[in-house]
Amino acid sequence: MINYLEIKQKILQNGINVLGWRTNKKYIVIESDDWGSIRTPSKNTLMHLRKKNYPIEDCQFTLNDSLERDKDLIALFEVLSLAKDKNGNNAVITANNIVANPDFNKIRANDYQSYEYELFTKTLKKYPHSSNVYSLYKKGIELGLFIPQFHGREHVNVSSWMQALKDKNPDINYGFDLEMFTFNYKKNIGCKEGFADAFSISNKIEKEYLDSIIVDGLRIFENLWGYKSKTVIAPCYTWHSASEPTFSNKGVKSMQGMFIQHSVNWKSNKREKKYHFLGQKSKNSNIKFLVRNCVFEPSSDLEIDWIDKCLREIEIAFKWNKPAIISSHRFNFIGTINQDLCDKNLKKLSILLKKIILKWPDVEFISSDKLTELICVE
Length: 378
Fold this sequence. Notes:
single chain; alpha/beta; six-stranded parallel sheet; three-stranded parallel sheet; 14 helices
């Protein structure tokens, strides 16, 4: 019997790799989003949400994602350090970093009239078992295991979230009291309704405000890590092309993402899609686009064989002489809420890396900023 879904997926997977920059080398890039951002603070938080009958089972991020702990990074680094490429370099994760989070106490004190944030390094001090995360980041950078890049100042769309708080939306305010800015307070919630599309803008006035956030966020990033971020990944893969010159003017060379960019058409105020290929140049800046062509997200669906799926996608990428750019969000490797799942995912990552090296002995592990350097040379 013909499996039309499988055929469609194969056509799509090959199609992603047809256009754009090529290389004879076999590069593996692992891009991981959300590091530094808050999500679900604890198991106790989930208990409160369940008591209110919110449909939290519909969202694996709500169920599994939380601010990283010391032990999460230590365990992840161990897996990465054991995988060596032909040059003796270990596997490396491009850790897309949210550098700040809402300061709930200050926002509450001003009765939701103005937004306030705190550096994620301050947020870490409020969470048990995360006191060494910042120093572990630095150790990861030193060892070439963990390379932060810019994901946003915060992961929340400040304007829309603050408006919902001012309007006294009972669900949003309840989440606020739990120190959450996003959760599935109703079924089929998307990034926009969940306020997670931090770079989404609908007009020039919103653009000006977002520009100030971007510039501030990139400044914080450089202060934290001692270097400028060469790449950016927009939360929820949502940004307007009008923001690209702002990134470019601050030293960003490429935008990470999937092959689809989501944005809002300012004239119709409707959501629209734009399509990108690897190495494509922005029409209004020097920005180039990186396109993820492989996925390893074991926490998102427990029924999928993610190792086999990712290996097949890597094989297709290499067939088209493309680097394999793997999407693998933070929530796969955080054990605050579900340690057992975290442990299983780390084992799967270890197996995946071993199989990659065995199948392609000439593979090379690089980070997104290094790939950007290679693409921008040409």
